[in-house]
Amino acid sequence: MAIVEPVQQFERIRNVHKVPLEELYTSGHRTCQGCESATVMRGFIKVAGPRTVVTGSTGCMYVANTSYMTTPWIVPWMHTQLGAGGSSAVGMAAGLRALMRKGKIPEEKINVISFCGDIGGADMGLSGISSALQSDYDLLIILYDNESAANTDIQATGMTTYGAQTTFTPPGKKYRIMQRRWKKNVAGMLAVGHPTCRYVATACATYPPLDFLNKVKKALSVGGPTFIHSYDPCPKGWDYHPRYSHDIGELAIRSGIFPLYEVHDGQVTYQHDARKNRVPVREFLMRQGRFAHLIDEDIDYIQKRVDEMWEEWEIPGVAPIKGGLKIARKSSATD
Ligand SMILES: Cc1ncc(C[n+]2csc(CCOP(=O)(O)OP(=O)(O)O)c2C)c(N)n1
Ligand code: SF4
Ligand SMILES: [Mg+2]
């Protein structure tokens, strides 16, 4: 069933002083110093508030957050299987709806948020997320993308940047570049492929300030299933000093290699216009040890692909289709 209610108004957070002080993701976790995904967890639950249940797929954000019977979550939290981010969100929302309908718990708005990593969400769990976005439940899925299977020691995924060194893609004498796939465009694919899903966004918790938090607020107020893809610098997997997580996130946005946008009721809005004044992608790449083996021609190739995305795609960052509507004059596909 399509979701047709109007967007509920939500109060935008306009400066850091307005960010809720209450911590619902607290000390007691074992993520690395400088871990951006931990910042994502802390941020989304701050704005969602205590009337929220969270479900999370296996990965760093499960394992590092629940070691030895400890947990930083103050809200109810459930671990689910690696590919079950979407289905666990639907199950949770359906369970809450049934309990309310039967009068077993009071009728109230309870947020359902499911998080998954890039293997969990973009690779293994993609079909479950697609199914959740076709449902009529209020739920938010957050894909935290650290561009590797970080928890199992930094293996390449469908989201890893072209050319990056990972334990699956070590540069060698014969092949300098082992990671030859271009990053999968998951947010664009989900936005374009699910016309009744009212809100899909990309985000980076580091830049621009407050953008990620406001996107979570908006996603929770829109109604129906929603999706946010967050780009999370990972000091361990990307090989840089933990103090630079913020800078690297900002460079990803300002270089245009990670496009920042939201698709709300079919309308695309960019939060950073990388069509102009892009910083060279080299500045993003050369801050990270995982790209230390790249030579000029590799960097030029990556720059060319990024330029193409902003200058030639019909909808930059969202749909890699070039050049408007063309009607074939003959029935031949080879015309
Ligand atoms: C079905 C299944 N296959 C493999 C594993 C082993 N495993 C646990 S975490 C993980 C990596 C998950 O990567 P990602 O979703 O990107 O999360 P991250 O570790 O990067 O936070 C893998 C492969 C598993 N738990 N379940
Ligand atoms: S390996 Fe990366 S994602 Fe995992 S806890 Fe460390 S910094 Fe965070
Ligand atoms: Mg990952």
CATH class: Alpha Beta
* Hetero groups: thiamine diphosphate, iron/sulfur cluster, magnesium ion
Give the biggest sheet. Answer: 8 strands, mixed
Tell me the span between the first and last alpha carbons. 40 Å
Instruction: Name the overall outline.
Output: globular
Number of helices: 11
Structural class: alpha/beta
Number of strands: 10
Task: List the keywords.
binds magnesium ion, Rossmann fold, alpha/beta, binds thiamine diphosphate, about 325 residues
In words, what does this structure look like?
- By secondary structure, the protein is an alpha/beta fold.
- It has a single domain (35-316), classed as Rossmann fold (3-Layer(aba) Sandwich).
- The protein has helices at 36-48, 60-63, 85-101, 118-124, 126-133, 186-193, 211-222, 235-238, 245-255, 281-285, 296-312; strands spanning 52-57, 77-80, 111-116, 139-145, 199-203, 225-231, 261-264, 267-270, 313-315, 319-322.
- The strands form two sheets. An eight-stranded mixed β-sheet has the order 2-1-3-4-6-5-7-8, with helices on both faces.
- The chain is globular and about 65 Å long.
- It starts with 35 loop residues before the first helix and ends in a 13-residue tail after the last strand.
- The structure holds thiamine diphosphate (TPP), iron/sulfur cluster (SF4) and magnesium ion.
